[in-house]
Write a structure and sequence with these properties.
A hairpin with a 4-residue loop joins β4 and β5. The longest helix has 30 residues. This protein is α/β, with parallel strands linked by helices and about 950 residues long. The radius of gyration is 38 Å and the shape is elongated. Among the domains are: about 230 residues, Isoleucyl-tRNA Synthetase, Domain 1 (Orthogonal Bundle); about 190 residues, Isoleucyl-tRNA Synthetase, domain 2 (Alpha-Beta Complex), CATH 3.90.740.10; about 70 residues, Class I aminoacyl-tRNA synthetases (RS) (hypothetical protein PF0899 fold). A 6-stranded mixed beta sheet has the order 11-9-10-7-6-15, sandwiched between helices. It has 32 helices and 31 strands.
Length: about 950
C-alpha cells in the first residue's frame, strides 16, 4: 500500500473512533462567562426557586452580620460573604430551607465622619441636623447599591431585593422598641461614669469600638508630700519631709487626682535620700527598682503595712490648697512602678469604681474636645496631650518630679479615626450587665452555644465576665436617637406607657428623623404632664450606639419573619463573622436577646481570621498592600476567589497575593478539565436507555463507584461540619487523583475504540454519568459558576431528568455503595503498584525503548507467592491501567527483587485505528488493516 492510500485508510478509521464531544469549553474565560451565569440565575429567580423547592424542609438560618455601607467592597467582604454563601448553599443542598436576608449597618461614626469630610465640616458646625441626616441616608444608600452589585458579582445568592437596612423605618422602630423594652425591664439607667472617649470624634465609645495599638508615652515618678506623718509609723523620718511615691503614664490626669491607693496587705519601705534627707514611701518589693530608676541613693528605714497608710493625708502635687487621702484598692500592681497608684475617678475605670467605693468626687475638668476647663486651673485651655508637658514642667519646678522616661506600650485608640482615646467621666445612658442577674444569664447562655473554633467559647466568656456596663449613648447626629424625654423641672424620665407607645408608633411608621425636627411637645401625647405637674420637657439629643442597631437585628429580622412571609425564624442556627466580633456583634446581639428573650439569638457561632497580604502583614489601603476583589474578578473571575476562600484555613488569619492565587487557579483549571472530559464522553449516552445495572459493571467501574460513594460521604460530612477546606480538597482530589490521573486514563481505550453500544463502553459511561452528576452537586457551593455552566451542559442530554439549576438539587445521598473488602484492597494495591510501573515506563521512554506508552509491553516478575497470586488475578487489568498494548506475568529470577518490572517494545504491529500494537492485525477478512478487536467494534 502506498503512503497516500495508507493515510486515506487511517483517516477513514479515525472517523470511527468515538472521541469526546462537548460544547463546554476548555478555557473558563470566567470574567466574560460569569456575568452570563448571573443573568441566567436572575432570569429564573434562583434565590426564590431555592426556597420554594425546600419550603417544607427544616429551616437553617444563617443570620447576616451587616457590613457598613461606607465604601467599596474589600477582600474582608469577599472572605466573609463567600463563607456565608458556601454555608447557605451547602445547607440548602443538604436538604434545609435556607432563607438568607443580607443586611447593612447604616448609622454611626464611619458614615458620619465620611460625610463630614466630604462636606468639609466638623460636628459642631452642623446647624441643620435633619438635612445632615438626609445626606447621611443618601450617602449610605449609595454604598448599599454599590456593595450589593459587588456581592452579586461574587455569585452570592441572597434576598437582594429585600435586605434589612438599619436606617429603614421598620428597623429604626425595632431599635426604639428594643431600647424601651430594656427600660421597661429595668436594665437601663442614666448616670455619670468614666468611659472611653474619643476627643477627635467627640463622642463616647463602647469597649467594642476601641482597638489597641502601640503608643509612646512619658512615664513619671512623682512625690506626694504627706500632710500628716504619725511618729509611731515613721519614727525619726517624721522629723523631716515624707512623701509617698506614685508612678503614672498619663501625667495629664494628675490635675484630677482625688486619692492615692495602696495594697493594704503589702509591705511599704521608708527610704531616706542620702543627699537631701527627704524620705519616700514605696512598696518594699519595688524599692530597689525605684531607687535605680529615680537615681536615688537611699538608706532603707522601717517597714509599714499598706493598711496602716490608709487614711493618711497628702498635699495635691499640683494644687497646694488641696488635701487628699490615702485609700486601698485591690488593683494596685506589684510588678512595676512604686506600688502606690494615683487615683483620678474622672479618668479611669478602676479609678471610677474606687471613687464610688470611697465616696470621692468624680472630678473631670476636661471637655468633649479633650481640653481642660477652668476647673483645671492653670491648665485651662490646654488639650490633654499638651498638658502632659506642662504638668511635668510644673512638677519639676516644685521638686516633686523624681524621674521621667519614655515608654512604648499598648494603648487604646478609636476604632474609626485611629487616634488615642482617653477615659472621661460623663453623663451617659447605660445598660447594666449586672442588673437582674444578667451577667450570670449571659454566661449560662454562652455555655449552650457551639463555637467553631472551640476557643471562641472561652474568648467571649472571658469578655462577658469582665465587661463593664454597656454605654449606649453617643454624642453624634447620625443614628437612632436615645428615645427618652425628661422633665426639666424635676429631672424625671417620662416612662409612662402612653409616652413609649407614642414614640414607638411614630418610629415604626416614619423612622426616627422626626425626633430631630419636631419639638418635644409634638412627640409627647397631647396634654401629657409629668408626675410633678410640670409640662416643661426636653428630649435627649444623643443617639444610640450603632452596636445596639445591629445588636437587635435578630429582633428586626428573625423575630419579625423578614424574608419568611412574616413567620418568625428565631433563634438563628448560625452567626458567622470575623473573630473580632466576639467583642462586637456576638456580644451586642447576645446581651439584648438574653435580657429580652432569655436566650442567645444563635445556636452556633463560627469565626474566621483576618486578611493578611502574602508576607503576613495586615492589609490596609493606606499601606498600599490591599488587593481589590474587583480587580481580581476582572482578571481571573470570581470563581478563583471563591476557591481561594474555600481552600484556605478560615480558622486562622488568611493570606492573599497574586502568588498565593496561583494554587487556586491551578486547582480550578484541573477541575474544569476533568468536568469537560466527563461531559465530552457522555455525548451519546442516555441513562434511561443505556445505564448498566450495578451487578453487570466490570470490577474497575464498581471500584470507582465505591470511591465516588466515599467522596460523597466525606464531602457531605465536611460541609455539615463547616470544614470547607476539606470538602473542597476532597472533591478536587477526586477530580485530579482518582479521575484525571487514573480512571479517565484507563477508560480512554474503552470509550474511544470499542463499539458505541458495547457493554464495556456503556458500563464506563454509566459510571461517568453518576460521577458527573454527583461531582457537579458537590462542587456547586464553592465553584458555583462552573458547576452551573456544566449543569446546563448536562441538561442538554436529558432536560426532564434534571432541575433547571444545580442549586435546586440536593447533594447525592450517602448511599453506602460498597464493594467487597477484597476488591477495594485489590484496587488500592493496583494503584500503588501502578506508580512503580509508570516509573519503569518513563525510564524506557528516556532510553528510547518506546515512544508512547502504547508501544510498550510491561512484564511483571513477582517473587513472593502472594504477589504471584495477586498478578494472576489482575493480569487482565494492567494494559488499561497503564495504557500499554501488552502486559504479562512471568516467574521471578532467583535472588531478584520482590517485584521486577521490565518494559520492552510491544509485539506485533500498530493498529491504525486503536494505535495499540497487536498480533492479530488482518485476522478479520472484512477489515484486513486493523486488529480483531477494532474489527468487532466496527461490526457494532
Amino acid at each position: 500500500m502506498n503512503n497516500s492510500s495508507e493515510t486515506t485508510k487511517n483517516s477513514e478509521y479515525s472517523a470511527t473512533v468515538l472521541l469526546p464531544k462537548t460544547s463546554f469549553p476548555m478555557r473558563g474565560e470566567l470574567p466574560k462567562r460569569e456575568p452570563e451565569t448571573i443573568k441566567f440565575w436572575e432570569s429564573i429567580n434562583l434565590y426564590k426557586a431555592m426556597l420554594d423547592k425546600r419550603k417544607d424542609r427544616r429551616p437553617y438560618i444563617l443570620h447576616d452580620g451587616p457590613p457598613y455601607a461606607n465604601g467599596e467592597l474589600h477582600m474582608g467582604h469577599t472572605l466573609n460573604k463567600t463563607l456565608k454563601d458556601i454555608t447557605v448553599k451547602s445547607r440548602a443542598m443538604l436538604g434545609f430551607y435556607t432563607p438568607f436576608v443580607p443586611g447593612w449597618d447604616c448609622h454611626g461614626l464611619p458614615i458620619e465622619l465620611a460625610l463630614l469630610k466630604k462636606l468639609k465640616l466638623d460636628k459642631r458646625h452642623i446647624s441643620d441636623v435633619p438635612a445632615f441626616r438626609r445626606q447621611a441616608r443618601e450617602f449610605a444608600q449609595q454604598y448599599i447599591d454599590i456593595q450589593r452589585e459587588g456581592f452579586k458579582r461574587h455569585g452570592i445568592q441572597a434576598d437582594w431585593d429585600n435586605p434589612y437596612i438599619t436606617m429603614s423605618p421598620q428597623f429604626e422602630g425595632t431599635v426604639v422598641k428594643a431600647f424601651l423594652d430594656l427600660v421597661r425591664k429595668g436594665y437601663i439607667n442614666k448616670g455619670k461614669k468614666t468611659i472611653y472617649w474619643c476627643v477627635n470624634c467627640e463622642t463616647a465609645l463602647a469597649d467594642a469600638e476601641v482597638e489597641y495599638a502601640d503608643k509612646n508615652s512619658t512615664s513619671i515618678f512623682v512625690a506626694f508630700e504627706l500632710a500628716d506623718k504619725p511618729r509611731e509609723l515613721f519614727g525619726e523620718a517624721a522629723n523631716g519631709k515624707v512623701s509617698i511615691v506614685i508612678w503614672t503614664t498619663t501625667p495629664w490626669t494628675l490635675p484630677s487626682n482625688m486619692a492615692a491607693a495602696v495594697a493594704k496587705d503589702e509591705n511599704y519601705r521608708i527610704l531616706k535620700d542620702s543627699a537631701t534627707g527627704a524620705c519616700y514611701v514605696a512598696a518594699d518589693k519595688l524599692a530597689d527598682a525605684l531607687m535605680e530608676q529615680c537615681k536615688l541613693k537611699c538608706e532603707k528605714l522601717g517597714l509599714i503595712t499598706g493598711e496602716k497608710l490608709v487614711g493618711l493625708k497628702y498635699r495635691h502635687p499640683l494644687f497646694e490648697d488641696k488635701i487628699n487621702t490615702v485609700i486601698h484598692t485591690d488593683f494596685v500592681a506589684m510588678d512595676t512602678g512604686s506600688g502606690i497608684v494615683h487615683i483620678a475617678p474622672g479618668h479611669g475605670e478602676d479609678d471610677f469604681h474606687a471613687g464610688l467605693a470611697w465616696k470621692l468626687d468624680i472630678f473631670c475638668p476636661v471637655n468633649e474636645r479633650g481640653v481642660f476647663t477652668k476647673e483645671g486651673r492653670q491648665f485651662e485651655g490646654l488639650s490633654v496631650w499638651q498638658a502632659n508637658s506642662k504638668v511635668i514642667e510644673t512638677l519639676a519646678e516644685s521638686g516633686k518630679l523624681l524621674a521621667q522616661a519614655e515608654i512604648r506600650h499598648s494603648y487604646p485608640h478609636c476604632w474609626r479615626c485611629h487616634k488615642p482615646v482617653i477615659f472621661r467621666a460623663t453623663e451617659q445612658w447605660f445598660l447594666g450587665v449586672d442588673k437582674h442577674g444578667l451577667r450570670e444569664k449571659l454566661l449560662s447562655e454562652i455555655d449552650k452555644v457551639r463555637f467553631v473554633p472551640q476557643g471562641g467559647h472561652e474568648r467571649i466568656g472571658s469578655m462577658v465576665r469582665n465587661r463593664p456596663d454597656w454605654c449606649l449613648s453617643r454624642q453624634r447626629h447620625w443614628g437612632t436617637p436615645v428615645p427618652m424625654i425628661t422633665c426639666k423641672t424635676c429631672g424625671a424620665a417620662q416612662t409612662d406607657e402612653t409616652v413609649f407607645s407614642a414614640i414607638e408608633k411614630r418610629a415604626f411608621a416614619e423612622g426616627t428623623d422626626f425626633w430631630f425636627s419636631d419639638p418635644v411637645e409634638k412627640i409627647l401625647p397631647p396634654g401629657h404632664k409629668c408626675k410633678c405637674g410640670s409640662s416643661d420637657f426636653r428630649k435627649e439629643t444623643d443617639v444610640l450606639d450603632v452596636w445596639l442597631d445591629s445588636g437587635v437585628s435578630w429582633m428586626a429580622v428573625l423575630k419579625s419573619g423578614q424574608g419568611n412571609n412574616g413567620t418568625p425564624l428565631y433563634p438563628a442556627q448560625l452567626y458567622l463573622e470575623g473573630s473580632d466580633q466576639h467583642r462586637g456583634w456576638f456580644q451586642s446581639s447576645l446581651i439584648p436577646s438574653v435580657a429580652l428573650e432569655g436566650r442567645a439569638p444563635y445556636e452556633t457561632v463560627l469565626t474566621h481570621g483576618f486578611l493578611l497580604d502574602g508576607e503576613g502583614k495586615a492589609m490596609h489601603k493606606s499601606a498600599g498592600n490591599a488587593i481589590s476583589p474587583q480587580e481580581v474578578i476582572k482578571k481571573y473571575g470570581a470563581e478563583v476567589l471563591r476557591l481561594w476562600v474555600a481552600l484556605g484555613d478560615y480558622s486562622e488569619d488568611v493570606r492573599i497575593s497574586d502568588k498565593l492565587l496561583e494554587g487556586p487557579i491551578d486547582t480550578y483549571r484541573k477541575m474544569r478539565n476533568t468536568v469537560r472530559y466527563l461531559l465530552g464522553n457522555l455525548w451519546d449516552y442516555n441513562p434511561k436507555l443505556h445505564a448498566v445495572p450495578d451487578d453487570k459493571l466490570p470490577e474497575m467501574d464498581r471500584y470507582m463507584k465505591h470511591r465516588l460513594a466515599q467522596t460523597v460521604a466525606q464531602a457531605r460530612r465536611d460541609y455539615e461540619q463547616f470544614r470547607y477546606r476539606s470538602a473542597t480538597r476532597t472533591v478536587a482530589d477526586f477530580c485530579i487523583l482518582d479521575l484525571s490521573a487514573f480512571y479517565l486514563d484507563a477508560l480512554k481505550d474503552r470509550l474511544y475504540t470499542l463499539g458505541a453500544q458495547s457493554h464495556e463502553r456503556r458500563s464506563a459511561q454509566t459510571v461517568l454519568f453518576e460521577i458527573t452528576v454527583a461531582l457537579l452537586k458537590l462542587m456547586a457551593p464553592v465553584v458555583s459558576f462552573t458547576a452551573e455552566e456544566a449543569w446546563q451542559e448536562l441538561r442538554k442530554f436529558n432536560p426532564e431528568a434534571f432541575e433547571k439549576s444545580v442549586f435546586l438539587e440536593d447533594f447525592p445521598p450517602e448511599n453506602g455503595y460498597e464493594v467487597s473488602a477484597e476488591i477495594s484492597e485489590r484496587w488500592t494495591k493496583i494503584r500503588q503498584l501502578r506508580e512503580q510501573a509508570l516509573k519503569a515506563l518513563e525510564e524506557a521512554r528516556q532510553k528510547g525503548t518506546i515512544g508512547s506508552s502504547l508501544e510498550a509491553k510491561v512484564t511483571f516478575r513477582p517473587a513472593t507467592p502472594e504477589l504471584q497470586e495477586f498478578f494472576r488475578q489482575t493480569e487482565q487489568f494492567w494494559p488499561a491501567v497503564l495504557i500499554v498494548s501488552q502486559a504479562s506475568v512471568e516467574p521471578a529470577p532467583q535472588g531478584g527483587p520482590e517485584l521486577d518490572i521490565s518494559v520492552s517494545h510491544a509485539d506485533g504491529a500498530k493498529c491504525p485505528r486503536c494505535w495499540q500494537w497487536r498480533t492479530d492485525i488482518g485476522k478479520d477478512n472484512g477489515h484486513p488493516d486493523i486488529c480483531s478487536r477494532c474489527a468487532k467494534a466496527l461490526g457494532h
